[in-house]
């Protein structure tokens, strides 16, 4: 039970602390506000009610600054999705492909495939200076992930050595500084713009990992929040922090459309100047008011520092009985790689990211080339689906808990119900988008429903990692996240390649069919193979028996 401190305040219940440290293996997704398994939740009664003196402190201010950090990074990542519409000469692209469009018109459609995309119907206010092909645009939109995929583990190692404050801060600052050079790089040539985006991906990957904490995969790497936030507050404060991601996407789409359509600083270049300036201002505030741990903070009160120290007094330990963190060679690699339960997570994660990245990078292009929306409307309407996704992500936790606690459903059934719903119904909606023609209202409604429902994966494969292997959850997530980054590279490229010569409803149907097919395949695979029980190779007792057997064989 909770200890009572000499000053009358209750300390954290260390009996439950270890569970939270295990959950940290999934910190990347936990911080995004996704639901954690109910058995890992800790009530305030179990941990002791916080005294009013500790109700608000520097840990909350740091979380608030972290929220803006996430928002800033997502501004940098996705501002190009809308802005690229105003950077290219759309009229020239349409003129080049119009004769071909007339020859390959799909007569099976109940409407003209060129109805929304005809040059004399487009409502783009401004044409940009660049004559980039659709294939080049796809490479540009996906080039960020060429850098992102390589620095996940190095970022964690750097954070472990230098502290999360500086790696997180410098990663954001570097990406922001590079953003200033995007207009110059674009003017120099598309290859220079691609190089800038790759470098941004390298720095952003370091930033993302510095906010994670993966004790198995990154050898006891300690994240900022893990050193600041008491265990029983890790379902509240991190949720606030990671909400900056969703807000960043929404703000990126809205502000990019408004700025690109204005005359401020030349129109579209202002998007990158403003984002770069925001990054620099945030970094200055971050450096002044944030430290990697409470002990090094210059403004924190001793009372709050002592409270956090007592709550986090135990070092991070794995579930191993000897308290040692297993090395990379000690992991059951063959069992992990051949586990169908693990592959259910991999495939669900991959398909989720394929559709998510494809829409994030290409949705504004669809609204422009097919529906003929101008920049302002494009930015505003592109943001709506991600507002819906944010709302679903917030409510999925309570929904999952209710299904288990009040409805009596087993954890495995809840995981499958939510995850399959998050893939099957969006697949139907995406197919429908390709068949509603030029109805903008219907397209927005269907896309918002599709993207919004994907938020249900927060109660599905994201937390399923801890269900099947709490001991190696970090390793599995590291592998899964690396595989799931591939769609960020391949998705935009394939999309722009498919619509290269015919950016019409007909060509976009192919894009939607591919996404829907992946959704349906994931639904079937996850329904059959997903599990919610600890796998035999992840059972601590199995590891203990294996070590005992090995010791006997040596003698």
TrEMBL record:
The chain crosses the membrane at residues 57-77, 166-186, 240-259, 271-291, 335-359, 379-396, 442-465, 472-490, 510-529. It comes from the Eukaryota. Keywords: Membrane, Symport, Transmembrane, Transmembrane helix, Transport. It is found in: Membrane. SUPFAM superfamilies: MFS general substrate transporter. Coiled coil: none annotated. Its main location: membrane. It is a multi-pass membrane protein. GO terms for cellular component: membrane. Residues 59-534 form the Major facilitator superfamily (MFS) profile domain. GO terms for molecular function: symporter activity. GO terms for biological process: monoatomic anion transport. InterPro entries: MFS, MFS_dom, MFS_Na/Anion_cotransporter, MFS_trans_sf. This is Sialin. It comes from Trichuris trichiura.
């Amino acid at each position: 039970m909770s200890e009572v401190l000499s000053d009358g305040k209750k300390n954290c219940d260390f009996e439950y602390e270890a569970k939270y440290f295990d959950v940290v293996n999934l910190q990347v997704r936990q911080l995004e506000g996704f639901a954690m398994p109910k058995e890992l939740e800790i009530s305030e009664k179990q941990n002791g009610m916080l005294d009013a003196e500790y109700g608000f402190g520097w840990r909350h201010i740091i979380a608030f600054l972290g929220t803006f950090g996430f928002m800033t990074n997502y501004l940098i990542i996705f501002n190009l999705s809308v802005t690229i519409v105003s950077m290219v000469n759309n009229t020239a692209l349409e003129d080049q492909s119009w004769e071909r469009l007339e020859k390959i018109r799909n007569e099976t459609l109940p409407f003209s495939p060129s109805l929304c995309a005809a040059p004399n119907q487009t409502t783009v206010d401004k044409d940009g200076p660049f004559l980039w092909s659709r294939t080049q645009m796809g490479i540009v939109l996906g080039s960020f992930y060429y850098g992102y995929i390589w620095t996940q583990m190095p970022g964690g190692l750097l954070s472990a050595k230098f502290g999360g404050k500086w790696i997180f801060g410098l990663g954001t600052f570097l990406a922001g500084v590079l953003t200033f050079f995007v207009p110059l790089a674009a003017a120099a040539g598309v290859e220079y713009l691609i190089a800038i985006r790759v470098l941004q991906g390298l720095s952003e990957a370091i930033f993302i990992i510095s906010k994670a904490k993966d004790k198995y995969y990154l050898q006891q790497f300690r994240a900022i929040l893990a050193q600041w936030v008491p265990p029983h507050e890790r379902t509240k404060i991190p949720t606030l922090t990671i909400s900056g991601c969703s807000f960043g996407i929404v703000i990126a789409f809205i502000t990019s459309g408004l700025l690109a359509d204005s005359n401020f600083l030349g129109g579209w270049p202002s998007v990158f100047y403003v984002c770069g300036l925001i990054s620099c201002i945030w970094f200055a505030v971050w450096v002044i008011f944030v430290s990697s741990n409470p002990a090094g903070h210059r403004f924190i009160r001793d009372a709050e520092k002592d409270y956090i120290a007592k709550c986090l007094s135990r070092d991070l330990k794995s579930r191993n009985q000897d308290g040692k963190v297993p090395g990379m060679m000690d992991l059951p690699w063959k069992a992990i790689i051949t586990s169908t339960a693990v592959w259910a997570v991999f495939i669900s994660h991959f398909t989720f990211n394929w559709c998510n990245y494809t829409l994030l990078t290409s949705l504004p292009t669809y609204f422009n080339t097919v529906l003929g929306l101008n920049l302002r409307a494009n930015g505003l309407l592109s943001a709506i689906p991600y507002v819906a996704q944010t709302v679903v992500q917030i409510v999925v936790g309570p929904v999952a808990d209710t299904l288990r606690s009040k409805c009596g459903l087993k954890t495995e059934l809840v995981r499958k119900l939510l995850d399959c719903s998050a893939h099957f119904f969006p697949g139907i909606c995406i197919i429908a988008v390709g068949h509603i023609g030029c109805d903008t209202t219907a397209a927005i409604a269907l896309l918002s429903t599709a993207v919004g429902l994907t938020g249900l994966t927060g109660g599905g494969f994201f937390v399923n990692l801890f269900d099947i292997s709490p001991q190696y959850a970090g390793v599995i997530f590291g592998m899964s996240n690396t595989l799931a980054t591939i769609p960020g590279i391949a998705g935009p490229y394939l999309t722009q390649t498919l619509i290269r010569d015919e950016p019409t409803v007909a060509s976009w149907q192919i894009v939607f069919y591919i996404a829907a097919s992946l959704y349906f395949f994931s639904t079937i695979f996850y329904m059959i193979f997903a599990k919610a029980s600890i796998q035999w190779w992840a059972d601590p007792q199995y590891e203990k028996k294996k070590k005992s057997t090995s010791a006997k064989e040596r003698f």
